[in-house]
Design goal:
406 residues, Rossmann fold, nine-stranded mixed sheet, five-stranded mixed sheet, 11 helices, ligase, AMP-bd_C_sf
Length: 406
């Protein structure tokens, strides 16, 4: 059986880089002719984009700007007509995410194969299939590999356990913290995680996977747990192989590490913002600034893949945070608070006791304030549940992330 999903993964890096740059120029040319947002962005640049230096002179596009651009019209970012898309998804922000008609539109197949998923694996998918793309995004590549998928979605832990044990599920896709929850619940029911379960490999995304959480879950089930990095708008950006010593850059996008304020590429090894251009004929987001901080490791990997590796996600460039797989923006919280004139200031505190994300919305208001409607509106607009604390002092009106990742 092949060790890689396709041959591009192991050709010499300079050769792969040259092939990717030729594809990048085709993507830029497509955007110049078909994408209104990109046409507007480069309208004042008197350059022909033929070299890497030319490409680096293109102003980068911060992900947060997608919200404002889509307010004008979603189609301004597309290289195709809306009616030609396969699916359109909705994420809090709000953001619409298109899906084209390719069998693995988001390009995750090489990632899953590198992690150890193989034909005839029975895979339990615990990401959502409702409005957001995660479930279908990660199902497509597994089907392309030849796996059978159980579209379980999130929650219903007792049912998840029943399915996993009765169908002898071999693969898990979801957040590592949720797989830990499944394991703890199964233990409380008297099950043996190594004998009653048949898991072999698990994929984690949408949260930071710490070494301690990885080891804990791997030891619980006696499995291999690997992570991938991507976004709903771009798809797969990088992924771990069996050696788990960084995340290999995907062959289907161009990735730069840039100075966050200027968008200028940084020397190898320096920490900067991950700026990515997917090779997409549908949604060619040229130089999209993800807001995530990382750096590249160019040392050889024993797996034989030649692409550099992202050394984890090392933070954010802004005050946006990801909680339970969802981005939370300060302006979203402020919009919810606006509905309650009696709230003078607020602070959204994020912690992770027992490695599980917890939200607490602190508000400055009268002590007799009834928070029921506030909690309901927060969940409706931001798709997450929060606790509420009432304070008499002025608060920062910011998101405060106090999670610890040891």
């Amino acid at each position: 059986m092949n060790k890689t999903f396709h041959d591009l993964e192991t050709i010499p890096w300079e050769e792969l880089r040259e092939k990717k740059f030729r594809t990048l120029l085709k993507t830029v040319n497509l955007a110049k002719h078909k994408v209104k947002e990109f046409q507007n962005r480069i309208s004042n640049l008197n350059i022909s984009i033929e070299t890497e230096q030319d490409f680096q002179n293109i102003p980068f596009l911060p992900k947060k700007k997608l919200i404002d651009i889509q307010e004008q019209h979603f189609s301004n970012l597309l290289a195709t007509e809306i009616g030609e898309l396969a699916h359109i998804y909705y994420s809090p922000g709000p953001l619409f995410d298109p899906e084209g008609n390719d069998p693995d539109y988001w390009g995750w197949a090489e990632a899953f194969y590198a992690m150890g998923f193989r034909p005839k694996d029975i895979v339990q998918m615990t990401f959502s299939y409702h409005l957001t793309p995660a479930g279908l995004m990660l199902e497509q590549p597994l089907r392309r590999i030849g796996c059978a998928i159980i579209p379980a979605g999130p929650g219903n832990t007792d049912i998840q356990i029943e399915i996993m044990t009765k169908l002898k599920v071999t693969g898990f896709v979801g957040m590592a913290s949720y797989l830990k929850t499944i394991g703890e619940k199964a233990l409380s029911k008297g099950l043996n995680l190594k004998n009653d379960f048949h898991l072999r490999v698990a994929f984690s995304a949408a949260e930071i996977l710490t070494n301690s959480l990885r080891k804990e879950v791997e030891n619980m089930f006696d499995i291999t747990l690997r992570q991938g990095y991507g976004t709903a708008d771009v798809g797969c950006i990088a992924y771990e192989c069996e050696h788990a010593n960084g995340m290999h850059l995907s062959t289907r996008c161009w990735v730069e590490i840039c100075e966050p304020n200027t968008g200028k590429p940084l020397p190898p090894g320096e920490i900067g913002e991950v700026v990515v251009t997917p090779f997409s004929s549908v949604y060619p987001l040229i130089r999209l600034g993800t807001g995530d901080l990382s750096k590249l490791d160019f040392s050889p990997c024993p797996c034989g893949r030649t692409s550099p590796r992202l050394v984890g996600i090392l933070g954010r460039t802004d005050n946006t945070v990801k909680v339970k797989g969802q981005f939370v923006y300060e302006h979203q919280v402020a919009e919810v608070i606006k509905a309650f004139p009696e709230i003078k200031s607020w602070e959204l505190l994020i912690t992770n006791p027992n490695k599980k994300d917890k939200l607490t919305l602190k508000i400055e208001t009268n002590t007799d304030f009834n928070s029921t409607h506030l909690v309901s509106l927060f969940k409706e607009k931001i798709k997450l549940l929060t606790g509420v604390e009432i304070h008499s002092k002025s608060l920062s009106s910011k998101i405060v992330d106090q999670r610890k990742w040891a």
